[in-house]
Design goal:
This protein has 17 helices and 20 strands. With 484 residues, it is α/β, with parallel strands linked by helices. The chain is globular, with a radius of gyration of 23 Å.
Length: 484
């Protein structure tokens, strides 16, 4: 990457810069390969942040099917993480996981499960065999204590597991049904909508050597880090993130070294070497120290997150574009990569982080207001749907992290926070699923690559030309949904 003109003597955010179009021989967005350059194995350069209000089983499955990876938070008990990993690994890499109920499930309970997935139906099953489906349409005006078998529709479209997504799309397009039920030996295996069928032809899932979906998990730097890491490796995670707000400290280096020793010992016995990610830092010195301690990927970003108050509380941090640019260069020089963590609010920001040299981009709050995030779906006084999100250094997160401590110690810890304890993330009616947001991001990044003449992300970083703009320059590029 190079600057259009000499860069200013101050650091830059994503909003401060823009990409300049180059002469291009790339004629189609679909010909751009967005495989990450970080060595993790994802087919998209997207990582879901290890935030409790965002990253869980549904998010992990869905994002991995589209080519990214989700990181489970460090606050989740190890045994729970192991169960989640097992379920994600057992999920089909193409078909969406169905929301299933038994015939005697109440309509009210079934309705509460509908927002768990974006496909909008629950499947009524008995002994693993589909009997019918129920959506909001069937439940309209029905007593919530009625049972689903009384109102379900038995007009079903079932397809075999070897039916191609294109065939499923054409079959659904020619019918009045919205969802196809995928069955194997008459048992429900998954579901596909028309949009899911299309996506299955446009994305490649992120899978391990055995064809199972990828998933990662995080550990902190306190307590018996090596023991927890050992358990997580045993659970089958594909990436381990050693995570703390201030990654350039002695305790992090010690924790990372101990985790590396556990990982290498396991790798010597099994041949399976799990990549280690560590952060967060914003300086080249921090990157080099973490790499020397064993990090394969370094997480970059202090204070740019939407739920983070670090910069306002402490004055510590760095504008994210400059942090990513410098840290990516340092990591490349050492044969490693970085994740750009935080500050992403639009597809352009993802493109700019990748142009600056990030191997992948980590997204948190932007994904909180989706069906797949872990929070409960709520409705405000105007009838708008939202989910609550909160920062991982907030008092709310600290309370959860210290739940086993004494009441006195928990109260002391909660006095000091660097994050928002509750924020409403409204679902976009036009993009309520994380898959909808991924579609938008991928469309933007693919177009960015075609504008710069790049057919893959390595070329994108090499060819990118970046200019610096004023606030009015940024505003000029914002669309107007109403006239002026």
């Amino acid at each position: 990457m190079r600057f259009l003109q000499s860069p200013p003597a101050y650091d830059l955010t994503y909003s401060d810069v823009f990409l300049v179009p180059n002469r291009s021989a790339v004629s189609s967005r679909l010909s751009v390969d967005l495989t990450s350059t970080d060595g993790i194995g994802t087919t998209l350069p997207l990582v879901v942040a290890n935030m409790t209000a965002i990253s869980g089983r549904r998010m992990a499955e869905t994002v991995a099917r589209r080519g990214g990876i989700a990181i489970l938070p460090q606050d989740i008990p190890t045994d729970v993480v192991a169960k989640v990993v097992g379920k994600v690994k057992a999920s089909h890499p193409v078909f969406d996981t169905p929301v299933s109920v038994t015939p005697d499930t109440t309509v009210g309970e079934a309705l509460s499960l509908l927002p768990k997935r974006a496909h909008g139906v629950v499947v009524v099953i008995a002994d693993g065999r589909p009997l019918g489906t129920m959506s909001e349409a069937e439940a309209a005006g029905v007593d919530r204590f009625a049972q689903v078998h009384e109102i379900m529709t038995s007009d079903l479209l079932t397809v075999s597991a070897d039916t191609s997504p294109a065939e499923v799309f054409e079959t659904l397009a020619g019918s009045h049904l919205d969802v196809a039920l995928v069955v194997e030996d008459e048992r429900l295996l998954g579901v596909l909508t028309r949009k899911h069928a299309l996506r299955a032809t446009l994305y490649r899932p992120a899978v391990d050597a055995d064809g199972r979906l990828l998933i990662g998990a995080a550990v902190g730097i306190n307590g018996d880090v090596a023991r927890r890491a050992d358990a997580l490796f045993g659970a089958g995670i594909d990436v381990l993130v050693v995570d703390t707000a201030h990654g350039h400290q002695e305790k992090m280096l010690q924790a990372l070294k101990s985790v590396r020793e556990v990982r290498d010992r396991i790798a010597d016995g099994s041949g399976r070497r799990v990549p280690l990610v560590a952060g967060n830092v914003v300086s080249t010195a921090g990157v080099i120290d973490l790499i020397d301690a064993g990090a394969d990927v370094v997480k970059v970003g202090v204070g740019p997150g939407a739920m983070c108050t670090t910069r306002m509380m402490t004055g510590v941090g760095r504008p994210q574009f400059s942090a990513v640019l410098d840290c990516a260069e340092a990591a490349r020089g050492a044969g490693r990569s970085i994740w750009a963590d935080g500050g992403v609010r639009h597809p352009r920001d993802v493109a700019l982080a990748l142009a600056a040299g990030a191997g992948s981009v980590m997204i948190g709050t932007w994904f909180a207001g989706t069906y797949e995030s872990t929070g409960n779906l709520m409705t405000d006084s105007q009838g708008r749907l939202y989910k609550e999100s909160y920062g991982m250094a907030s008092a709310r997160a600290v309370r959860m992290r210290t739940k086993d401590a004494s009441g006195f110690e928990r109260a002391r810890a909660a006095l000091f926070e660097e994050g928002i304890s509750t924020g409403r993330m409204y679902l976009d009616p036009e993009r309520p699923s994380v898959e909808d947001l991924i579609d938008s991001i991928v469309a933007g990044v693919r177009s960015s690559c075609t504008y710069t003449g790049a057919s893959n992300l390595e070329e994108f970083h090499e060819f990118a030309v970046v200019g610096v703009q004023s606030n009015s320059g940024y505003d000029e590029g914002r669309p107007l949904h109403l006239n002026w």
